[in-house]
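Q: Got a minute? One more chain.
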Amino acid sequence: MLIALLIFPITVYLHSPALAIGGAVQGIVVGSFILFALQFLLSLFVGRAFCGWACAGAGLQDCCAFFVEKRARGGRRNWIKYFIWVPWIATIAYLSLLAGGYRSIDPFYQMENGVSLGDVQSYIVYYVVVGLIFVMALVGGKRAFCHYICWMAPFMVIGRKIRNVVRWPSLHLRADAGKCTECGKCDKGCPMSLDVSGMVAASQMENSECILCGNCVDTCPAGTIGFAFFNRERKR
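A: Always. Here it is, folded:
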């Protein structure tokens, strides 16, 4: 994530919801459209691991967490991002239909020489995005932007829910409640402020806000939580 944060000035347009709209108007599949599609496809097998391992915005928020350890409240506020995502997706679909569909692919649309920051306007966009993420992390708590505003998260949440219905092998957390010592280290270490110990006690490690970062796996002194890929069948 720190590497992603360092190269964010180069890649910021690949995360742009506005560019996806601009591309739809002209019938062009742009870089951000491709990234969002890849996030959805990957989520069918690795859930929201992108958020836990490769997101530049997540790297910035985790840096902020060194100074402000406030937990994000989550709950119903998590639905805010869907009120942003649904109209945005509907707009893209409508504009692409008006344009007669997608006719070409340009991964570096509006990215001169493949770099996002090529003029003054792009710098303004970059600092507005970084500022928004920064303020959200300081005011709303750890990973508040991921919880409430992120327009990319719904792609991965939906992909994960599809996987849970079909139940093909995918990356997930597995816990042995019998090993839990109730030390609370997993709760404290979770960057998404989830009730991990409660999930362990309920033998339910699936949560739409879980980003599979593995912090709970690393911090658990009893080895209660671990990663798995294949579904374990119970013997009868």
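A: The mean pLDDT is 93.
Q: Perfect, thanks.
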